[in-house]
Amino acid sequence: MMAALNPTSECEVQGPEFKGRVCVTGASGFLASWLTKRLLLSGYHVTGTVRNPGNDEKLAHLWRLEGAKERLRLVKAELMEEGSFDDAIMGCIGVFHTASPVLKPTSNPKAEILEPAVEGTLNVLRSCDKNPSLRRVVLTSSSSTVRVRDDFDPNIALDESSWSSVELCEKLQIWYALSKTLAEKAAWEYCKQNGIQLVTALPTFVIGPSLPPHLCSTASDVLALLKGETEKFQYHGRMGYVHIDDVALCHILLFEKETAHGRYLCSSTVMDPQQLTALLATRYPWLPIPKRFKTLNRPHYDLNTSKMRSLGFEFKSIEEMFDDSIASLLEQGHLTLGPTNVSY
Ligand SMILES: NC(=O)c1ccc[n+]([C@@H]2O[C@H](COP(=O)([O-])OP(=O)(O)OC[C@H]3O[C@@H](n4cnc5c(N)ncnc54)[C@H](OP(=O)(O)O)[C@@H]3O)[C@@H](O)[C@H]2O)c1
Fold first, then answer.
1. Which domain of life is it from (predicted)?
2. Ligand 1: which atom is nearest the Cα of residue 140?
3. 269 bridge partner residues
4. Res 3 pLDDT > 60
5. Most buried among 71, 125, 138, 336, using CB within 10 Å?
6. Is the pLDDT at 10 greater than 80, yes or no?
């Protein structure tokens, strides 16, 4: 169901600055915290969902955001509880669904990652369907829904028409990519059947400052690389990179731009780990950046991001991503300017 912005809502009361209320699921996460910051700065009222609203330590960074005291509301919601998002979503003109497990399952991929991603997304969409004020849902998908396949021409950059192979993800046990692929497919099917306007953002590996003091999985991988570890980036292999601020701004643009439709890759540049670490070692000679990675037997790929760029969007450079990320890691004490960064 779809509706125009309700003209009798808080809009008239709050003046021209007020842009309406939107919901961000998983608001305390790495990406969602930055998205919440950007939404507040651009005048939205934000309802963020979190699993434990009583955890002051985990949520303090959200309450410190500009505009939070006046325009942020935090509500408890759990992906696997039916109807859990009803209250948070009701009355919102937009929903940014970012909550999804970002982890490597330990023993039970179905319960740990696949069900929360797929069933959780459908649960959120069922709440969206009950909300007559809803204009659009922006789902945070991933470039891993595009590139895990072995049947493409490496000379042609992959674009949004490409879908990762479910069979290949299962065979190689790439559970995260499988969870995101199945969740996005389920979302498209549900939204088509129920007349919900959906746009999906497909970020590559997100780099940038972490607002939460506890580092999420991807930010921890970056920290480990900067401390000299090769393991995670060896596993990731060739990857696209994008600045966290760009991902947040893309989400907002995809919500606001009426003509936005379908899927949008959000990525600045695709690099092999050797290329990335050569650049990092030159730029940050004081860090023990690893130099050698094994060459993997995986298909070469590039990403075509012309769809996002056609909306007038320009992505920040890889240098800016790491400058900002490292500055934040230093400020938070995860890195120091000296030999103590080496990890054994
Ligand atoms: N980081 C990247 O490089 C990257 C790239 C592409 C796409 N993405 C997508 O971006 C989104 C955010 O990822 P992130 O990197 O910011 O990771 P993150 O910090 O781990 O955020 C994940 C969020 O999902 C929430 N969540 C997980 N399971 C949940 C459940 N069962 N019920 C309710 N909430 C649940 C987490 O809540 P808790 O805080 O309570 O655990 C957390 O807020 C994900 O959809 C991810 O797939 C990330």
1. Eukaryota
2. 45
3. 241
4. no
5. 138
6. no
CA of 25 to the centre of ligand 1 (A): 9
| Model confidence pLDDT, tens digit, residues 207-250 | 999 999 999 999 999 999 999 999 999 989 999 999 999 999 99
Q: What is the mean pLDDT of residues 180-201?
A: 98
How many DSSP H helices and E strands does the chain contain? 16, 10
Where would I find the beta strands (DSSP E) of 114-192? 136-140
For the chain, domains (ranges, CATH) are 10-207+242-268+302-317 (3.40.50.720)
Answer for the pair 112, 106: CB distance below 8 angstroms, yes or no.
yes
What amino acid occupies position 124? V
Please report the atom of ligand 1 found closest to the CA of residue 242. 3
Residue in 102, 103, 142, 180 to alter for ligand 1 test, most ligand atoms within 8 A of Cβ: 102
Q: What pLDDT digit, counting tens, does each position of 296-333 carry?
A: 888 899 999 999 999 999 999 999 999 999 999 999 99
DSSP state of 340: G
Give the whole-angstrom CA distance, residue 199 versus residue 340.
Answer: 44
Helix (H) or strand (E) holding 48: strand 45-50
> Residues 262-274: pLDDT tens digits?
999 999 999 999 9
What is the model's pTM? Answer: 0.94
Q: How far is the CA of 216 from the centre of ligand 1 (A)?
A: 8
Strand partners, 119: none
Residue matched to tokens 């007038």:
312
Q: Which of 85, 100, 139 has the most ligand 1 atoms within 8 A of CB, as the residue to mutate?
A: 100
Q: By percentage, how much of the chain surpasses pLDDT 70? A: 93
- Angle among Cα 188, 190, 196 to the nearest 5 degrees reads 85
Instruction: Name the closest-CA residue to atom 28, ligand 1.
Output: 101
Distance CA 208, CA 318 (A): 10
Arithmetic mean of pLDDT over the chain:
93
8 A C-beta contact, residue 217 and residue 103: yes
Name every protein residue with a CB atom under 6 angstroms from any ligand 1 atom: 26, 28-32, 51, 78-80, 98-102, 116, 120, 140, 142, 180, 203, 205-206, 216, 218
